[in-house]
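Single-chain item
Fold in token form
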Amino acid sequence: MLLLGLWMAGVGTAGPLGYVDPSTGGVILQALLGGMAGLLLLVRLFWGKIKRLFIRRHKAVPAQPARKPTPPVA
């Protein structure tokens, strides 16, 4: 979107700098869709590592030593 906006701003201020083929939009769309597919694949591959960054780990509570049973008072 940013590149499209910059391109449109450049076309509006200056005259045409060259011939733009009608299939150029298709190539741009294909590149954007391919980039999004690649990004989704990376997220899927590394999802466990990404999730681990945001999960809090609880501190382990040290185990208390077992008490010895007290002998019965007679």
